[in-house]
Description:
This protein is α+β, with helices and mostly antiparallel strands. It has a domain of about 55 residues. It is built from two helices and two strands; from the N terminus they run ααββ. A hairpin with a 7-residue loop joins strand 1 and strand 2. Helix 1 packs antiparallel against helix 2. The model has no long low-confidence stretch (mean pLDDT about 85).
Amino acid sequence: MEQKLRLEEFKVLRRHWSRGIPWWDHLVFALLWWLEEKLLDARIKVEVDEAIKEYHEEMDKVDPVIPPPIYTETLSEGSTSLPEMRLTAPWYKEADKG
């Protein structure tokens, strides 16, 4: 991965601080690159944390309406005299028999 500065502010600082001395220019670049990485990591962390916080605040405002399940009992035609009990999700629809 090629190391280069991504933010314009750091590119300007590099241009102003460069002196044409190879070891100095490399030192300036390394310092600016390290600072830029730390700054970007901090900005990203703050943005992600804020987005998660906003999401949770929005979700706390919304009261989800969950309909109760449907309980049904039918007499079984088998050898037992016990009824057949069924628990079905309210959004489930059986295919029409016909």
